[in-house]
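Structure tokens please, single chain.
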Amino acid sequence: MERYEVQSIAAHIGSAEEDLQIAQAFADRTLSRGELPAVPAARVQASRRRRVLPPDADLDKIMRYRAAEHRQLLQLMHEFEALQARRRGERSPLARFDFTASPAQ
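Here you go.
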């Protein structure tokens, strides 16, 4: 997951210059000619510094996978605690409540 996140951000940062060129060509109404204008390096660098998060679609995917990882970790922790309790001869609850889920609407 970390590799996907890093690569997604790197690709987003790397496409800053081309995105600015396309936006400028669109504004100049020269996009259909296929020639992309030069963009000042300072403007490209400023755009790259602002791109610290991946695009929305990638960010949603990352957040969804991170949430799934978190739920699996909590489930494993609960199972581990129940196993430890059984080894000590204690009773372990069969039902566990997940308070991290969003409330029903």
